[in-house]
Amino acid sequence: xxxxxxxxxxxxxxxxxxFVGTAGRCLQKAxxxxxxxWATVGRSNLVKRRPFQDxxxxxxxxxxxxxxxxxxxxxxxxxxxxxxxxxxxxxxxWHDWLAAELQRYNPNLIVAAxxxxxxxxxxxxxxxxxxxxxxxxxxxxxxSNGHLFKVLATYHPSYIVQGGIHEFFxxxxxxxxxxxxxxFPEVRREPWGEMIQPSLNEVIGYLxxxxxxxxxxxxxxxxxxxxxxxxxGMATLADDGMIDAIxxxxxxxxxxxxxxxxxxAIWEALHAAASANPNLxxxxxxxxxxxxxxxxxxxxxxxxxxxxAHSLLYPEFPKGLDFLCSFYLDDVVYYKGEGRNxxxxxxxxxxxxxxxxxAVFTLRVVxxxxxxxxxxxxxxxxxxxxxxxx
Length: 390
Description:
Layout lengths: L1 E4 L4 H6 L6 H13 L7 E4 L12 H5 E9 L5 E11 L1 H17 L4 E4 L1 H8 L4 H4 L3 E3 L13 E5 L2 H5 L6 H14 L11 E3 L4 H13 L5 E8 L2 E10 L5 E7 L1 E2 L2 E2 L3 H17 L3 E3 L2 H10 L7 E4 H8 L7 H8 L19 H28 L3 H5 L7
Parallel strand pairs: 1-2, 1-5, 5-7, 8-11, 9-14, 14-15
Antiparallel strand pairs: 3-4, 6-7, 9-10, 10-11, 12-13
Helix pairs in contact: 2-8, 9-10, 12-14, 13-14
């Protein structure tokens, strides 16, 4: 792997080597915790000089703001202008230099440390969101065979030493993932099967199968629009080893999805499945159960609330599903930005696909949390807690 930061600091300029200063020592320690051999790690920076001798203001050194004209719909030049922030010509050259450098190294994995490296290599922005995501590079960042490089986003170690010390073990966890991903060059995603617009028979068949397979764990996640239930998604592990997921629409942007009789049949089948199968899993079930109880759906048991189980393992870490995916799963790209308070202007299909992702990834997180509960000697403690059995 090659770790790419932003720009060299004073110690790195003197040593002519990347990540040897205070931030570099933090990164070395995180590598030791993660089991990554520092001697085998390539190190580079997006730019090869310090931003300024007396300052490390990256934006000031390598970005420029230009005023551009605004034209009216009729083609006339407006009196107003718009300001656009762009890379300087020097920055463009450093970008191309880095692309050529990485092509010479030809690593299986690039670790983009910090937002500047992430944006330059992938075009994505928001390191807090994309930290832990494995994505493809863009543009000139291609391997010697012409395929795009694989990139893992993580925090820059300078963020850790400048006050984010509580994030150190998150950085170490990302580097554990990097160690696994560096074994092969391609991006690998775990597939699943899904039904987005199922027929009534498909919904009933799915729920009846789940009702009679009480050995199976299952997830249920609801999505709301304007305070009402829009759809619910479910996922379970099929006998062939692949996750099977389904999204059941309830209300669309134009009205009810089912006839009253068909919707009643769905709620009756879900009630039977939830009453028979006690292995429901959910992320923050307090939210979803509020809507399910309105329809008379009262689960007979809860195997895991991933938010609570994760809090038992790591009480100091964030608890949202976006963080859990980035922390426990290797192949999930940040997608929670797709979710919001869905309104009438949003396409129903986008909501349904988002709903399925929540259900699928929650189920996968359950398995990883159970592994860590066993490793930490907390499995029996968590699953024997009476508050989890309803």
